[in-house]
Every structure is written in C-alpha cells, then in structure tokens.
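Protocol step 4 of 6: structure prediction from sequence.
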Amino acid sequence: MILADKITDLRKKQGLSQEELAEKLNVSRQSVSKWESAQATPDLKRIIEMSKLFSVSTDYLLKDEVAGGAISDEENDSLAGEVIRPVSLADARAFLALKRSFAKWVALAVALCIVSAVPLIFLSLAAETGVIAISADRAAAFGLICLFLLIAAAVAVFIVYGLKLKEYEYMEEETIETAYGVSGLVKELRAAYAPVHTREIVLGVVLCVLAVVPLFAAMLFFGENDFAAGCGVCLLLFLVAFGVCLIVNTSIIWGSFLILLEEDDYTRENKRKSRRYGPIYGIYWLLVVAIYLSWSFIGNDWDKTWVVWPIAGVGCAVLAGVIALIGNRKD
C-alpha cells in the first residue's frame, strides 16, 4: 500500500472528511485531495502530525512494505521529543554517490597504513644481510622516510574524506526521516550490490587468512634466513593490505545503504547509544595507535607489531559487547 492509499484508509477509519483532515493539519482540502490521489506528497511536518493523529508510525506512512503501523503513547512521546532530520531523494542520491566515490580512496589509505612499514623492514634486513650495499643506518632512514610519506598520504585522504562527508554526518548520528521513494530506491540499489558485497568480503577475508603462507613458505624453503623471512613478512603485509582494502571498500558502500535505511548499527536506538558511548571507542583506538607506535619504534620490531591490529579488532568487538550489555541494563 502506497502513502496515498494509507492516508485515505486512515482518514476514513477516523471518520474524517477531506475538509476535516485538512483543518486538523492546517492545510487546504485540495492539498489532502492531491495527497490521496498521489499527485503530491506531504512534507515531513505533516507526516509527523498525521502519525500522531492516526496513532501510526512514520515508517508505516512512508514505507510501502511496512504493515500495521500502530505505535504506543510512549513511542509517540519519544518521537515528539526528538529532532528528526529530513532526507530528500536528492540528498540520498548525493550521499550514496559520494560514499561510493570515496570508498576506494579510503580503502587505499587504510592499505597504505598497513604496508607503510614494508620499506623499512625490507631495507633494514637487506642492509643487515648484505643484499644491498648500504649502511644499516641509511637503510633505516630511507625506510622511515617512506613510512611517514605513506602515512601522510593516508592521513590526507582521511581528512579530505571527512571534510567532504561533513554535511552528511547527521545521517549517521541523528534520527532521520527519508522522503517518499527513498527507501525503495535504496533497497533496490542494495539488492543489486549484494552479490558484489558478498564476493569482496569473502575474498578479503580469505586473503587475510592466507597472508601467513608466504612467511611459512620462506621458513620452510630458506630455514633461518633472516632476509627471506623479512620478505615473507613483507608479502604477508601486502596480502593483508589487499584483503583489508577489499573489505573496507565494500563495507563503506554497504554501510551507506544501512545508514539511509536506519538498519543494523544505524537504527535509531543504536544511534542514541552511539551518542552516549561513542567517545569510548575514540579513546580505545587512540590507545591502540599509541601502543603500536611505541612498540614499533622502541623495539624496532616492525615485523611483529602488525599483530596489534587484529588483536585490537577482536578487542573492539569485545568492548562493543560489554557496552551493549551495560546499555541494555541501563535501558
């Protein structure tokens, strides 16, 4: 049932004429007539007023596939006290296009962070084992220069990405109400992209799992050869970077659909919890970065410190579970 039919059906159930409904909503009878004949669409303010008048959810009015729609007084009070940001069809299209265009750049920036230590590892081991005629100090200096250049490039991408998406930040953090037709469009795009999303997630995870193969192969065929082991570590980082690149790229695109549909991590309830507990995640990842850099520079163990990131990922999942448990108890 489309919005026009729902308005007609709900008006008749309330025993209201078009004139009476128009009077309650402070609009003309012609406006109500156009709504019910699908010649026009009511604005967000009228949608909210009708949801209260008819005791149905705004989702029921706006989304064709939502059945029923009755909401409690408590839910109505919550809706009335919360700021709801409208999202037009043009806004949704622009947001999806921007997310898709930047996804590959952000994914590449993450990959650069992962492989940033590769030049340092390779040059240092090559100098120590005599593979290249250069002093260990110079090799380390060149490696560090490459490391900081790669990280600087990645940070530049993150900054540009963040600034470009600043105007759409509210979609991830605040309660939104999409215009009529947005939900259907987004679901169609998501359904079309789903096979690509599945393929890239599977391939990315497989690459991360198989990344240890070059290291084990170097140990198997070259024994305790430090340079061969170092090359194995470099290949490991490249494979992990490629796998993570695929995962990040497709996750950003998939996440853009979820944001507009307010599903999974972007439901209204999860947004409220994010506003409450979001700073905790920021502090957590700052500590992870501090541990990684301290261990790497002080111990000069770049071939080992990469394990901080998968461990941190598991730790973040545990932290999210603990926060969810605490949040459910408080709620």
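Step 5 (inspection) to follow. Residues 269-331 form one domain.
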